[in-house]
Amino acid sequence: MKRLSLIVAMICALALLPQRASAALIVSLDPQPPKIHGLENVFVDINISGLDTLLGAFDLDFLYEPSVFVPLLVPPAGFGDHLGDVFLGEAVGGIDTSTPGVINLFEISLLLDFELDALQRDPGTGDLLDSFTLATVGLFRFDSSTGSPATTLVADNILLSDAIGNPIFPVANPTATVQIPEPATFSLFVLGLAGFGFLMRRRGTKS
Q1: Number of domains into which the chain is organized
Q2: What is the pLDDT of residue 171?
Q3: d(Cα 70, Cα 90) in Å, to the nearest integer?
Q4: Contact 189, 46 (CB under 8 A)
């Protein structure tokens, strides 16, 4: 009986926790380039839009196909600047690539409310920014002979909180697709370009 009472009390306590949600809140992925050929780097912006309050922290898992990509920890990969600069001690953050196929990213702002407000508000209109980049993930396609014609990238287990620690809930876990042309198709494309270049050189020599 005591155990049942304790469980009921815990459920009631969780129900009373302040929660923020917005139907317009979206976390999205923007890979650049959206199509890759051969051994190439891909940088994926993780963006957030539709906030109606200051964002104070985030934690998420970025999922990728480990048979196609490996993490790339070089610029422009890293955190955005809207929660403060990690290197200046304005925020604390971490990027964990120890699990193949998963990159965990987290950042917590250490700025005061008015400092955070200055980073996340449009100075011209005074409104909160429509959108901004949380972080950029870098990937390198290490083997051009593997992989399907397309690979899906996913942001999962997204946790967001406002400037005072109250949770904010995004609408859904976003996905993005990177197109990878089949090796045979890409080879034909390269041969076609080479043939075109040879033909143009011959015409130039005759003239």
Answers
A1: 1
A2: 65
A3: 29
A4: no
Residue 196 domain-assigned (yes or no)? no
Predicted TM-score (pTM) above 0.70: yes
Q: How far apart are CA 35 and CA 149, in angstroms?
A: 10
In the chain, the amino acid numbered 177 is T
* CATH code, 42: 2.60.40.680
What would the two tokens of residue 38 be? 């051969």
- The parent domain of residue 88 ranges over 17-171
Question: In Å, how far are 44, 77, 130, 134, 197 from 24, measured between CA atoms?
Answer: 22, 27, 11, 17, 50
Which amino acid, residue 199? L
Whether 133 maps to a domain, the answer reads yes
H helical segments located in the chain? 2-15, 113-120, 183-206
Note the pLDDT of residue 202. Answer: 54
The reply to whether 39 falls in a domain is yes
Burial 159-185 (b: 16+ CB within 10 A, else e): ebbbbeeeebebeeebebebebbeeee
pLDDT tens profile 155-200: 999 999 999 999 998 767 888 888 876 544 444 444 455 554 545 5
Cα 46 from chain centroid (whole Å): 3
In a domain, 191, yes or no: no
Q: Rounded to the nearest 10 degrees, how much is the dihedral formed by the CA atoms of 167, 154, 82, 40?
A: 170
DSSP type of residue 35: B
- Torsions phi, psi for 194 (to 5 deg): -65, -45
